[in-house]
Amino acid sequence: MSEKKLKLDIPLVLPEIEDEHDRCLDTLGKELMLHKGIFQAHVKEGTSPQLCIHYDPNLITLKELETLVRQSGSEFTRRYRHERIPFDSHVSADAAGVLTETLYKLPGMLHASINPAAGLAFVAYDTSRLKKTDIEYQMRKLGFEPLTHVKTASHKSAGEHGHDHGSAPGFLPHALRENWTYLLVGLAGLCFLSGWIGQSFFGLHEDQTRILYMIAYLAGGYDIATHAIPALFRGKFDTDILMLAAALGAALLGEWAEGAFLLFLFSLGHAGEHYALDRARNAVNALAKLMPDTARTRRGGEIVEIPVDELRIGDLVLVPPGDRLPVDGEVSKGRSAVDQSPITGESIPVDKQPGDEVFAGSINIEGALDIKVTRLSRDNTLHRIMEMVANAQSQHSPTQQFTRRFTAWFVPAILILVALTIIMPPLLGWMDWQRSFYTGMLLLVAASPCALAIGTPAAVLAGIAQAARNGVLIKGGVHLENLGAIRVMAFDKTGTLTEGSFQITDMLPMPGSTLEELLATAAAVEQQSNHPIARAVVDKAKELELSLPPAGSMENLAGRGILSMIDAQPVLVGSLHLFRDTDWYQIDPSFEQQISTLEAEGKTTMAVSKGKRILGILAVADSPRPGIKETLQQLRNLGIEKLIMLTGDNRKVAEQIARLTGVTEVQAELMPEDKLLFIDRLKEAHGKVAMTGDGVNDAPALATATVGIAMGGAGTAVALETADVALMADDLGKLPFAVGLSRASRRIIAQNLGISLGVILFLLIAALGQGISLSSTVIFHEGSTIIVVLNALRLLRYRYAIHEDKASEASRCP
Fold first, then answer.
1. Phi, psi of 572 (to 5 degrees)
2. Measured at the alpha carbon of residue 101, what is the angle toward residues 75 and 456, in degrees to the nearest 5?
3. Where do the H-state alpha helices sit in 365-476?
4. Cα(732)–Cα(498) distance, integer angstroms
5. Within a 13 Å sphere around the CA of 638, how many CA atoms are in the beta-carbon half?
6. Of 755, 649, 613, 632, whose CA–CA distance to 692 is shortest?
7. Which residues are known catalytic residues?
């Protein structure tokens, strides 16, 4: 039996799949193996994940296999859906875990993940076995109300339509449903206080106070019970069940006042927690409000206003001064200053003129602009940012993964401890049944891990939101935490540390050649390349109005230069190493000396040959980005110990740029594969490593690094797709902000973890020692939950001021 392999990039087969670990890929692989001649189909991980298929060419040809895979992928995409379902988020983190387990048990469900902090459910399912309405039905049964009108790129936001009314009955007036949660909390508090004050100070009869306490029970426990009790019937225990059980236990013991106070405090804590989380969610949802719903365009000689979704590429959109731009496009007519800060984070408006690129969500400040649409609304930069911010919330950070593992064994252990605490002491004669039952109720409340479950997701949500508001896209909690732990950062040179705008500085023809022949030959070949150096050569030829000879197709000689044909003769343009490696050239010492002299001046050199004749040398120079030295110093102030430049350029040029920028180490004359190997060595030596580049030429290095950071995300789809972190403006100045924010996020996540575990430990010890009351336990429990959420919200006020040291930077998160 002969066996061959076919490797296909996953996006080509399944465009909707964004994660190579997606379970849908396993399902597709199993379906492919049902076909004769296919032995195995699996995901091959790497810088560019691929679907690897092992097959017998005697049973299925390569062409048949490729057709089958693409057809299967198309059918698979239609059959298997990935959905992001927003829901009212007035639920606990434990309830989210119950919903996750419930959804996983539905027939046809492939993946389910719930983010209670973001109010989003992420699901992947087989549409032939399961419908979205069935998923939403299960969510409603557990108290998660799906929101059907949430703005993406062109729909009204949930805050404007489909507002969340929690568990309010539908027959109530809108005003009551709007404030249902707060009305219940107020009623519970009022009834509890009335009963307690009446009994304590005015001699109110016990039966009357019990009625008031019962009303407090119903009001305080209503929202909790709407999802906790259905979960209980499915055999699922969560934190809210523990609270209801504790309140019921207090009532059985005759402690009605204590039980009413417990439920009042718990409902008050829930309301405060969700109010605080809404602030973080609103920071993310505010991105959607940047997108205008309509645009003015010309139709049949008239100016009409139409929905943005109806615009097509090439349409002209009219934007008067003061309006937000509804589309990504190119200025066709007019000049104006445009505020791009909502997209790129740039604080200063950018002057725009015909031919310049503009982004949806930006604000036209001065003059009227005619804009030619270059991207549909579903593909524009703002829409992509919103999609990626939403997707980022489905990824669990390392700390979130730890808390999930911790609670997975902690909660069952506590339930066992509670059972033993209730049963064993009376049997052993240590205390009576009433006291042991009360102690068990204390343990139930004390060990409830609400703060532990919500503290990290809240911090991740706030951190990602604040980054997006400032022109930095962080694509998940794992990248937020990893960036905050970085101590070593590598940079590509051209276009990252430097402007990437080269100018020809020297043209040195060899004897027997002319300047015109030298430049025209190089430009004829280089015009097929989009490299910045190639553009400089072509621009110089155009400036001198040279006539370029026709050249054959160009072959890229990675890391050394390019090869083409002119007049049936080979043409080489590249480094001195390229010519040393070519047998038919004899390198004159004076030629090498000229190159060494130019490189000592910080210039990049290219030798040019035609046939067996060297025509001469071209030298170009690039300059460091303005303010780059200050930016790198800020990174060092933040604790980045090594700033390493990686470049394929010669060492003398690299060292000259290093002196001007302030990098601490230079790795020059690297082939593309050398950069990958060096990143791997850095990871072995230092652990987590970041790589910063433009996301195009250095995409493999970005993928290999722990955190890949790409610049110019607003302008290039490649940068958005390849990087873990994208600086939306083509400006490294936002990098210290991104690193500082990530470090602040890590600190707050660690603080929240310490607060949560510390309070649980304290309450457990106090409960076992019977040194705390049930009401005090609830105060500590709910207080810790609100504290960790408020602590996380500090990230929404994070700022990074220039020239700050570590100590003052830490104070930027008030």
1. -115, 135
2. 105
3. 381-392, 398-428, 433-446, 450-469
4. 10
5. 31
6. 632
7. 492
162 vs 558: CA distance, rounded Å: 55
Q: 387-418 b/e with 16+ CB inside 10 Å = b?
A: bbbbbbbbbbbebbeebeebbeeebeebeebb
Residue 92 clears pLDDT 50, i.e. is over it? yes
Closest CA to 555 of 571, 536, 535: 571
Q: Could you read off the pLDDT of 20-78 as tens digits, one per residue?
A: 556 666 777 777 777 777 878 877 655 456 778 887 776 777 767 777 776 766 666 66
8 A C-beta contact, residue 533 and residue 681: no
| Tokens read off for 748 | 């707050």
Q: Which residues have C-beta within 8 Å of that of residue 619, sequence separation ≥ 6?
A: 504, 505, 506, 507, 508, 598, 603, 604, 605, 606
Q: Which amino acid is at 293?
A: D
Q: Please indicate whether residue 3 or residue 504 has the higher confidence score (pLDDT).
A: 504
The closest alpha carbon to 571, from 580, 563, 582, belongs to 563
Rg (alpha carbons) of the chain, rounded to whole number? 32
Residue range 344-366: mean pLDDT, rounded: 82
Please tell me the pTM assigned to this model: 0.68
Alpha-carbon gap, residue 48 to 53, rounded angstroms: 16
What is the CA 244 to chain-centroid distance, rounded? 37
pLDDT value at residue 47: 46
**C-alpha atoms less than 13 angstroms from C-alpha of 416 in its C-beta half-sphere:** 5
Tell me what the mean pLDDT of segment 488-492 comes to: 92
CB 582 within 8 A of CB 596: no
List all residues 6 or more positions away from 583 whose beta carbon is below 8 Å from its beta carbon.
Answer: none
Q: At what angle do helices 206-233 and 93-104 cross, to 10 degrees?
A: 40
Q: What is the rounded distance in angstroms from the CA atom of residue 778 to the CA atom of residue 650?
A: 67
Q: Which residue has the tokens 């008067």?
A: 320
Give the E-state strand segments of 102-161 in sequence order.
Answer: 109-115, 120-126
Q: Residue 45's CB: how many other CB atoms inside 10 A?
A: 10
Q: Closest Cα partner for 227 from 241, 216, 212?
A: 241
State the distance between the two ends of the chain, measured CA to CA, in whole angstroms: 68
b/e sequence 541-576, b meaning 16+ C-beta within 10 Å: beeeebebeebbebeeeebbbbbbbbeeebbbbbbb
Give the residue carrying structure tokens 């259905």: 230
Choose among 281, 216, 207, 217: nearest CA to 244. 217
Residue 574 to residue 567: CA distance in whole angstroms: 19
CA angle 208, 212, 218 (to 5 degrees): 140
Report pLDDT for 160.
39
SS3 634: helix
Give the DSSP H or E segment for 511: none
* 3 touches 54 (CB < 8 A): yes
Return the SS3 of 746.
helix
Token duo for residue 94: 């434990």
Say how many residues make up the chain: 814
Those residues whose C-beta lies under 8 Å from the C-beta of residue 575, and which sit 6 or more positions away, are: 560, 561, 605, 606, 607, 650
Q: By C-alpha distance, which of 710, 631, 703, 683 is closest to 486?
A: 683
